[in-house]
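Exercise 7b. Backbone tokens:
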């Protein structure tokens, strides 16, 4: 199929998917996957995409992961970590354990079980936030706890994927030395990114590193606000890609680096003094942040990023005998994750974060979703490295779909109880 015609068909499918998402109030990711599956099963697009579409899809997931990191307020995130660590830890261990045990029992392969566990660990904060926003709860304390916990889970999942994939693909063997080497590479990468964020690209203060003339000239503010921020989008996407390539050089997926690059950047970096200010009192501080964020989000979630999900969905070639075979496993995984995810996250919220009963259970429901990062893990494990077999791939896709359906349903049903039991509580 001609690459440009293939892209045109995918973009048409993306448009249909977002219309369906608006009508159903579900995450568009589900419909991107659905459209991709429909297109390949009716023979409109090929099962094996060409190099152009695969590269375009790879760029899409890099931009998506950068946009997700870019969206996070690092200050709010750090401030909320102390209250959310328990939710993140126990809310991640439970679904990982359920998925691992079921996958290991069914396929008796430690590599498959590990990747299934990691895929089901990453929480879809975007889906939960859309559901909470539709019910007017996006500014609630539970929204903050869910968001922080989900980000911690996602970072943890990315670190584990970075460590596990080289071992699972046979690039390294499961020896203590090789495992420590890969773990050390992961730690070193995140240390380098931290140094870039804190010392080389500081936020609102000058560090000793910035006193070095060359590094002072490399200030992220100078870089992003060149020519009054006209090239901020190009600059920020180049930064994301470079950090992604740095991650790849360490043996990790570029999406890991792109996500970390997004966490480094914040609104302060986009502020600059506009030309023409006559005095200090009349200084006009302009801000290229909102425009840049709008462009990045548009690229990530409207026209480049969705290609990744449609192309991933095109790997779902329906075999009804296969679907019938994996359905019991998918249902067992869905029920198990639902019960243990909600229970573990709710108990952690109650006893480590100081939430009441209604808030704790709402947090548990909010941690059920599986979207962008879960599908990144699935793509790495199934498409790029063939760690997952077809049965495991279908099981994870069906499980993720069912869990995503349960998020708005469970939150909507619990909302009256939540409002009744939190109406008299002070703001926290």
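Sequence design result:
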């Amino acid at each position: 199929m001609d690459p440009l015609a293939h892209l045109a068909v995918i973009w048409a499918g993306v448009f249909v998917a977002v219309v369906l998402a608006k009508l159903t109030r579900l995450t568009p990711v589900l419909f991107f996957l659905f459209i991709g599956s429909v297109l390949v099963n009716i023979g409109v697009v090929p099962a094996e995409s060409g190099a152009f579409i695969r590269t375009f899809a790879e760029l899409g997931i890099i931009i998506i992961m950068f946009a997700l990191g870019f969206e996070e307020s690092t200050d709010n995130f750090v401030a909320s970590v102390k209250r959310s660590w328990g939710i993140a830890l126990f809310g991640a261990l439970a679904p990982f354990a359920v998925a691992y045990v079921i996958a290991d029992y069914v396929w008796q392969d430690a590599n498959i079980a590990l990747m299934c566990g990691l895929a089901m660990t990453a929480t879809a904060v975007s889906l939960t936030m859309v559901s909470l926003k539709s019910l007017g709860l996006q500014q609630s304390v539970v929204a903050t706890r869910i968001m922080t916990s989900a980000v911690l889970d996602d970072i943890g999942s990315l670190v584990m994927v970075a460590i596990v994939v080289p071992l699972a693909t046979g690039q390294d063997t499961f020896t203590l030395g090789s495992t420590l080497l890969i773990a050390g590479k992961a730690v070193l990468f995140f240390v380098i990114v931290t140094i870039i964020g804190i010392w080389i690209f500081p936020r609102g203060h000058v560090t000793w590193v910035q006193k070095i003339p060359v590094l002072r000239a490399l200030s992220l503010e100078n870089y992003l606000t060149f020519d009054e921020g006209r090239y901020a989008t190009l600059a920020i996407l180049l930064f994301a890609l470079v950090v992604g390539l740095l991650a790849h050089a360490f043996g990790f997926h570029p999406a890991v680096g792109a996500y970390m690059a997004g966490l480094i950047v914040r609104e302060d970096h986009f502020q600059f003094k506009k030309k023409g200010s006559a005095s200090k009192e009349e200084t006009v501080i302009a801000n290229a942040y909102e425009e840049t964020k709008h462009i990045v989000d548009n690229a990530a979630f409207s026209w480049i990023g969705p290609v990744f999900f449609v192309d991933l969905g095109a790997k779902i070639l329906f075999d009804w005998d296969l679907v019938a075979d994996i359905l019991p496993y998918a249902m067992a995984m869905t029920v198990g994750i639902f019960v243990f995810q909600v229970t573990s996250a709710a108990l952690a919220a109650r006893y480590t974060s100081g939430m009441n009963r209604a808030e704790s259970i709402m947090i548990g429901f909010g941690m059920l979703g599986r979207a962008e990062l879960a599908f990144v893990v699935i793509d790495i494990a199934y498409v790029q490295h063939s760690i997952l077999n077809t049965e495991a791939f279908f099981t994870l896709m069906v499980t993720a779909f069912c869990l995503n359906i349960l998020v708005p349903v469970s939150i909507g049903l619990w909302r009256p109880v939540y409002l009744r039991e939190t109406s008299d509580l002070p703001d926290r």
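Instructor comment: Residues 3-422 form a domain with the Na+/H+ antiporter like fold fold (CATH 1.20.1530.20). The two ends are 56 Å apart (CA to CA).
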